[in-house]
Fold:
Amino acid sequence: MRALAVLLAATCALAPVTGVLAQAVDLTVVPPVPTDFKAKTTPWGEPDLRGGWPIDHLNGRTPLERDPAQGNRAFLTEEEFAQRDEAVQQLAQRYENEDKTGTMGIGHWAEVANANRRTSWIIDPPNGRLPAFTPEGQKLSDEMRSTWAAGQSFEWTDDFDSWDRCITRGLPASMFPFMYNNGMRIFQSPGLVALQMEMVHETRLIPTDGRAGIPTQIENWLGESRGHWENGNTLVVETTNLKPGPSATNIGTTGSPRENDTPISAQAKITERFTMTSQDTIVYEVTLNDPVVFTAPWTARLDWQRDDDFGIFEYACHEGNVQVRNYITASRAERAQEQKTGD
Structure:
C-alpha cells in the first residue's frame, strides 16, 4: 500500500497508469496531457503559475534515457518498480547510516525522493533514448572537456565546462532534476514570466507580451526566450540564441549518457510547455530541436508538484573560487610526476 501511495503521488498527470492498474494497460502509452483544468488568473488576466515548483520529488532514480532492455515501455512493471523502490530506500538510508557511524559523506549531500514508475524522462523517440549525434555533433561532443569525464587532465580554464566554472548548467539541462539544488519558483508580472532556478541561482526571463526576438548574433548561455499562452492553462516558451560551443551545456541528470558531453549549436531551438493540470500540478514538456548536433528532435516530460514552502538558499558552487585553480595545479603536478617516473 505504501508503494502504491508513493506511485499515485509521483505520477501526477500520469495517474491513469499507476499501481496494479499498470498491468492491465499498455505500458508503452503515455496518456495525453489533461487540458480540462481552468487555471486561476492573475489580476491582469493571465493564467496564474506563480509559486514554488521544486523538482526534488523527481529525484528518485528515474533516468533521462531508458534502459534499452525496456524497449518502448514508458512505465515500469510491478517487479521493476519494486526493485527501484528498494534501491531508493537504500539510498535514503545513507544519511541515517552516516549519523550512526559519526561520518559525513554523500548521504549528507545528495537528496533522494520516492521512486516513480516512469522508465525515462524522454518520451520521444518512443524508445526513450536520445537520438544519435550527427557527425558534427559527435565532433563537438569529442571536443568537450569536463571534470565529470574520467581520466582527463587540466591545463587551463577551457578544460572545464560551463557548469564546472559555476557559470551555468545550461538548457535544457537546468530543467532536469539533480541530486541537490532542485528549487524552482515562478514569478509573473504583466507580460513577463520569471523562472528562478536554485542551481547556479539563475533566473530565466520570459516575455509574454509579443515582443520581437533579438538578433541572431546575440547569444546567451540560457538563450533568448519568448512565451505565449494557450488554452487558458498552458505557457508555451520558445528559446533560441543559445550560446554554442563544446562547453555550452550538458544534460547532467540521473541516467545521462556520455559523461556530460552533450553540446548545443547556434541553430538549436527549445520548445517548452508548462500546463497546469490542477492548482498544485504542472505537466512540463521540453523538446530540443538541434539539427547540427542530433539527427532528430527529442522530447522529455516531467510532472511538477507545488511546494510553496520549499526554501531556496545560497548556491555557493565552489567556495573561495579556488577549485578550478586547484584542479589545474594538481593536474600539472600529477603529469610532472608521471613524466619524472617515466624518465
